[in-house]
Write a structure and sequence with these properties.
Shape of chain A: globular
Shape of chain B: elongated
CATH topology of chain A: Rossmann fold
Structural class of chain B: mainly alpha
Strand order of the largest sheet of chain A: 5-6-7-3-8-9
Number of helices of chain A: 10
CATH class of the largest domain in chain B: Mainly Alpha
Radius of gyration of chain B: 33 Å
Number of domains of chain A: 1
Order of helices and strands of chain B: HHHHHHHHHHHHHHHHEHHEEHHHH
Oligomer: heterodimer
Number of strands of chain A: 9
CATH architecture of the largest domain in chain B: Orthogonal Bundle
Largest sheet of chain A: 6 strands, mixed
Distance between the termini of chain B: 62 Å
Strand content of chain B: under 5%
Structural class of chain A: alpha/beta
Largest sheet of chain B: 3 strands, antiparallel
CATH architecture of chain A: 3-Layer(aba) Sandwich
CATH superfamily of the largest domain in chain B: ABC transporter involved in vitamin B12 uptake, BtuC
Chain lengths: 277, 489
Amino acid sequence: MTPLPKSQIEPEIVPFKAPNPSVPGASCPLEIHDLTVAYHQKPVLWGIDLQVPPGRLVGIIGPNGAGKSTLIKAVMGLLPLSSGWVKIFGQPYQKQLRRVGYVPQRESVDWDFPVNVMDVVLMGRFGHLGLFRRPSKADREIARECLEKVRMLPYANRQIANLSGGQQQRVFLARALAQESDLYLMDEPFAGVDAATEAAIVEIMHELKERGKTLLVVHHDLPTARNYFDMLLLLNMRLVAFGPTEEVFEYELLQKTYGGRLTILSEVADAVRQKTS
Amino acid sequence: MGARRKLGLLTVAIALLAGDASAARIGELTETGVWDQMVRFFSLRDPALRAVLLGSGLLGISCGLLGSFIVVRKMSLMGDALSHAVLPGVALGFLWNLTKDPLAIFVGATLAGLLGTLTVHAITHTTRLKEDTALGLVLASFFAVGICLVKMIERLPTGAKSGIDKFLFGQAAALNSQDLQLMTVVTLLAVVLISVFYKELLVCSFDPGFARAAGLPTRMLHHGLMLLLAFAVVIALQAVGVVLVSAMLITPAAAAYLLTDRMHRMLFLAATFGVAAGILGAFMSFLGNNLPTGPFMVLAASMVFAGAFLFGPRHGTLARWWRQRSRSRRVERENTLKALFHVLEGRGFVGEGITLQELASRRHETLEESRERLHALCRNGLATFDEPGEAIYLTPEGWQRARAIVRNHRLWELYLTNQVNFAADHVHDEAEEIEHVLGEEVVRQLERGLDYATRDPHGKVIPSTADIMHDDGGGPRPPKDLVGYGKTT
C-alpha cells in the first residue's frame, strides 16, 4: 500500500482534550483508537481517534458516504475492523452490551413484519433477559413507560405497518429507551420524520443527557445540527474535527468536511482496493 | 406454559397414531364409495393409513413452522433451492447400501442440502453475483446431478423396484415406521427449539442488526434455523417429493401471513394449515388410488392460500374490494348531499323541498342519474323523496352530514389559500378530494388554526363544527318544513 501524504490521514484539528486525564478509562463512554474500516478492501474510515466524554449529546455529521453509519456499526462490532480498537467504558463492546442502546436506520427493517408496537419495544429488553427467559410483567411495564415517553402508548397494539414514518421512528426510540443503557448510538433518527416527532426526539435526547447518558447521533441536516448538539463530530472518511459545537461549527472545518478533499481520499481508496483485490 | 401443553398433546397424538405402520398397503381397497373410503381413511382402523395420516400431519407442522420463518425473512427461494439440492444426497444415501434406508437417506439428503446452501453462500460472497442468481444456479445443477443419479439407480438390478422414483413427486403410502420415527423426532425438535428460542428468532428475523448489537448469537440462530429447515425438507421428501416440497414450506406460511399480524399466531396458523393440507392431500391421493401425494398436498395448501387471498378479513382481495366499493359509494353520497346543500344555499335556505330537476341541473347530469343518486341517499336514511310532490327532503342526519362535508371543503380551501398560499381559483379541485378524507381531529385542528373563520376564500359561510354537533347555534339552517321529519317515500 502506497504511503499516504501525512496531512491526508491525520486530522488537522482535534480541539477536544479529555477534561480530566487522570480518570481511568471506565468513565469514558467511548474511546476509539486508530480505527480503520473497509468494505470489500475499500477503506471507508481511516485512522479514527476519539474520546467521548460522558453526559454529552454528540452529533455525527458529514456528507453522504462519509462513513457516519459505518462508524456507529464499527463501534458495536457489527463490522470487522481493519485496524484499531474500540472501548466502551474502558472495556471491549462484547463486555458492555447492556450499556449500549441502538437506534438503527428506519429503512433497515421490513415494516410489514408480523409484530405490533409492543412486540418491537419489548425487543429492547431481550439483551437484559438473556437466553430462555421470556419478558416478565416488569419488562412489559418498562416497555409501556418507554412508549408513554415517546407518546406512542395508545398505539401499543397497532401492527407496525399501520404507522407513519415518524411514529415508526418513535417506536425505535422507545425500544432503545427500553434497553436502559448508558451510551446511545442513533443512526439518522431524524430522517423522514414529521416536525412533531423531531421535536419529541430532541426533547428525549436532552432528557437522557440530563440523566448523565451519552448520545452519539448521526445527523445529516447542517442547520439544525448547530442547535441540537453540544458537541459535533465532523466526519469525512477520517475525523475532520471533534469538539464543542460552537468551536467546531465554523466555515473552514465544514468546508473541509464537505469540500473538495473528498475526491482525493476516495480516489486513493479506490487505488488501494484495486491494488489488493 | 402453552408450549408445554402443546407438546404434551403432540406426544399423546403420536402414541395413539403410531403403532404398527407397515401392515396393509393403501392400494388394496375394499370399499368403493367415496363416503366408505372417507370413513376408512379417517377412522384410523387401518395401520397403514394411520402412518400416512401421522406422517402428513407431522410434515405439515414442521413445514408450517419453518416456512413461516423463511417467508418473513424473505428467504422463500432458499427453501426452493434447498429442496432441489437434496436430491443427489437422497440418491447417494440409497447407493450407500442399495436399499431405501431412511437414516442413510436422511443423512445424505441433509448433507447435500447444506452443501447447496454453502455453495450459494460461497458464490454470493466471492463473486459479484447476487443471491437470486446463485440460488438458481445451485438449484438447477444439484437437481440435474440428482436426476442423473436416480436414473442410474433405476438401471441397477435392484433399482427398478427400489421406489427411488417416488422421491420426485412423493408417495405418502410408502412411509414406513422408521420414516415416521424420524419425522417425529424432527418435528418435536422443531417445535421445542422454536418455542425455546422464540424471542431470539423473532428479533433476529425482524432486525438482525439490532439483535447483533444486543449481543444475541444471530449467526448461530441463523445456522440453526437453516439446519432445521434442511431437516424439515428432508423428512417431507418421502411424502411430498423433491419437486414440490418447497411449496409445502411457503404456501401454508404465506396463507397465514395474510391472515394475521402477529408472529406467534402466524406460526400456529401455518402449522395448522400445513397439517390440513398434508392430511387433505394424502386423502385425495388415497381416493385416486395411490396417485403421487405431493401434488395433492400442494393443491390442498394452494386452496387454503387462495381462500386467505380472496376471503382474508383484512388483507384479502374481497375485503379490499369491498372497502374500496363502500368508500367510493360514500364519496358519491357525500357529493349528492353537498349538491343538495348548494341548492338550498342558492336560495338563501328558504322554500319547499328540492326538486329532482334542481339536483340534476346542479350536478350537470340527467334526471335518471340524479334519481339513482337520490335513491342511494334514501336507502341510507339521509333523505326522503316525496314522489307525488316531486320534492326531496333531507333527514336530520342528512342535513348534518351535508353541512359537515361543505365545512370540510371550505375549511380546506381556506387553509390552502391562507396558510399554503394557493391562489383562490386553484383550491377547489384539491378540496374536492380532501373533503372526504378529513378526520374529526384534523378538522378541529384546522378550525383552531384558522381562528374559527366563518367565510371561505369565495366569501361563502363555513358551517362550524359546534353548530353541526349541537344544532343550536346560529349559522345557516334549513327552514323546519324542509327537514323531512316523519315524511316517507
